[in-house]
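Consider this one:
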Amino acid sequence: MKKYLLLSCLLFSTWIVNAQLNLTQVGYKSYTGSVAGVWHYVDTQGNEYALVGADDRVSIVDVTTPSNLVEVFSVPANSGQSSLWRELKTYGNYAYAVSEGGGGVIIINLSYLPDSIQSKHWYGDGPCAGQVNSAHTIAATDGYIYIFGSNYANQGAIIADLTDPWNPTYAGLYDQNYVHDGYVRNDTMYTGEIYAGVFGVVDVTNKANPVLLATQPTPGAFCHNTWLSDNGQYLFTTDEHNNDPLGVFDISNLQNIKSVYNYFTDSMPTEEVHNVRVLNDYLINPSYGSQITVCDAARPQNIVEIGNYPTGTFLNWDADPYLPSGRIISTDTYGGLFVFEPTYLRACYLEGIITDSVTTLPLFNAKIEVINTPKTVNSKLTGEYKTGILTAGTFDVKVSRPGYYAKTITGVSFNNGVLTQLDVALSPFIFEGTVTNAVGGAAIANASVHASGVNGSETALTDINGNYRFTSLTDGVYEISISQWGFLTQCSSILVDGTSPLDFQLAAGYYDDFVSDNNWTVSTTATTGGWVRDIPLGTIYTPFLANPDVDANDDCSNYCFVTGNLPGNSNTDDVDNGSTVLTSPIFDLTQFNDPYIHYERWFFIQPNVIAASADTLFIYLSNGITTAQVDYVTLGSPGSSTWYNNAVRVANFFPPGPNMQLIISISDKPGSGNILEAGFDKFNISNGPLGIKEPSSSTNFEAYPNPFNNALTIKIPADQALENMEVMVHDLSGRLLIQGTITSYSSELKGSQDLNPGVYLITLIANGKSGIPLKVVKSN
C-alpha cells in the first residue's frame, strides 16, 4: 500500500539560492510530471550525476554545477508504463531501475558518460525468467541486486548475481512476506515488510537459501523502509502512516531487539518520514509534508533535528547524501529535483532522570522545557528523559509535572557535541482544602470543586467532611468554581502556591451556571439535538447563529446546556424528529418570601418557514403535583439567535413549595426539516425581583393607527419582557370583548377588525398586574 495524492504540480521557473536551517538550496530542476527515487553516480572525469526516477523515464542529470542542472540523457519507460513509482540504485558503472508501472528492471550502462549511455530491460532469469515485470524498489550492493515488491511469487525479494552487471543471473528468493523496501549490508538484509507491520532481519549468506533471523513490529506497524546505523548496532525504520514516527531499534542482540527512540519532525510532526538514509551518524529524511530534515543521530537514543527545508506541497520522496561533493540530491514528487549544500553540526545534548524528592522514585511524564527554544520532552516510565538543541549557549530549563511544584534550573550550559547531565527531584504539590456552609460552618459533602488554568484542569468532589484534594495540578493561577445543588456557586481567579489550604464557604440558595454536573436530567426522543451540558460550538444559518458559540455572559464558566453540540453545518445536530426535555433537580422554595426564577435562554428557528406548534421552546414549573407553563418562545418571538434574560414570579402560578422543578422542553415536528436550536444557562432563584426587565402596572405601550378602521396593532417597548403578558379590550360599559396573549413586541390585535365603530379601552396585564388602560377609537 502506498499513500499518494494527485496534486497540482509545483513548478519553479527559475533557479534560486534559498537557505533554510542548515540546508541551502543551490540547484533546482523542474519536471512536467512526477518524480520518485533518486540516486547518485560519478563518472571517470569526476562529474556528478543525479539519476532521477521520473514518471515516464529515468532522467540522468549533470549536477556538477548545481546552478546549471542539465538533463544529459533520458531512458524512456516502455510505452504505457508511466508510473508515480520509479526507484533505482547503482552498482559500479551500472544503474538498475524498477517501477510499479512495469518494464522489468531497466539496466543502464553509465561507463561511457559524459558521452553516451546504453540501456535495456531485464525481465528475470532462471526460475523467474520473463516473469519480473514490476517492482517497488531495488537495492544493489556487494555484487548483487535485491528486487523488492515485484510481481513474482509472494512479492518478497529476488536476489540476482551481478558478476556480469549487464546480464544479472538469478541467485535466490526471500519470499516470506511482501517486502516493500530493504537495506542490505554484508550478508544481512533488513526488510520493510509493510503489510506484516514488521521489519525482518534475514541472513543472505547463502543467497539460494535466505534465513529469517528475527522480526520486530515498527511503531506504526506499517514498515516502509529501513537503514542501518554506521556501526551496525541500530536500525532506523519508517512507517507510511500519518502521525507515525521514525523508529530506532537496538539490534545488537537479535533475540532481544529493543525500541529505543521515536523521532517526529519538528515543524510538521504529523507528517511521517518517507525514507531514511544514514551518513556519518546523521539521518537524512525525505518526508511527507514536502520537507527534508537532517538529524544528528550520534546518540541514537536522543535524535536531534539539526536541519530542514520545505520543498513543495505533498511529498519529498527521496534523498541521497552520498556524492563526493557532500551535496544532497533530493526529489519532491511534484516539485522536481533539488540540490542542497548541507551544514552538518552535532547537537547539544541534555539528558537526565526526574524523581520524587520524598520517595526518590522515578517520575513518569514530567515535562522538560528548554526555555526560549521549542524543545519540550516528557520523561519515560524510568524517569529518564533525552533531548537536545542545535545552538550552544546558556539556557534555563523548566521541569514540571502535575501534582508537583515546577522547578526551573537557571544557567544550564549547552555545547555542541557535548552531553549535559541534569537530574532533577521534584517536590509534591499540595492543593487541598474544605468546603463548608457559610451559616454554621457545617461540612458540605459531594460539592464539586473545579480548577482550570494553564497548567491543567481537574475536578474534585468533597468527602463527608467537606475535604477536597487535587492530585494532578501544580502551582499557578487557576479559575476555581465550587458548586453544589442547594448552594450558590462561587468562582474566582486564585494564585495557588500550595503554602496553605484553600477553604471555601458556600451560601445556601440556588444558582447553577453548569460549570459542574448538578444532576439535571435529560429525556430525548429526537433523533439528533438532545440537550447536552458542554462548551457551545457555534453553527451558522447565514447570517444568524443557530447554535450559540458562547454561553451566557457574566457567569462562572463557559458551560451551558444546548440542544446538540456537534461542529459543522447548522443542521448537523439540531433538534430533529422529536423532543428533548431538560429537567432540574428538585428545589425547595418554602424558605423564600417571594421567589423569582431567573435564567437565560437561547432559541433559533430558521426564518421564512411555516413553524408547526411543535417548533417551540416551552418552559414549565412544577410543584410536584401541578405543572404550569411559565414561558415559551417560537417563530417570531423576540430574542431569536441571542441569549435572552427572563424571570418568572413563582407566586403567579402557585404557592412556593418544597418539591419544585423547572422543565425546559423543545420539540421538532417530524419531517419538518426546520433548523431548530435552543440553549439554557445561568439558572438562579432570588427572593424578590432582581431589577429584571419585567412589565409592571405602569408599562407603556402603543396602539395604532388610532383611530383605526381595520386591524389594530399593539406595540410593546423592547425593554419589557413578554412572559405572562395578556391583552384585554373592553367597551365603555365594561364588557370584555377581546382577551388574548401577547407573544411579540409588535403584532396585530386579533379580532380588532371585527369591532363595531366606537370607543374602547385596551389594558395590558403582566404577571397578574393590570396597567393603565389606553383609549382607542374604531372609526367605521
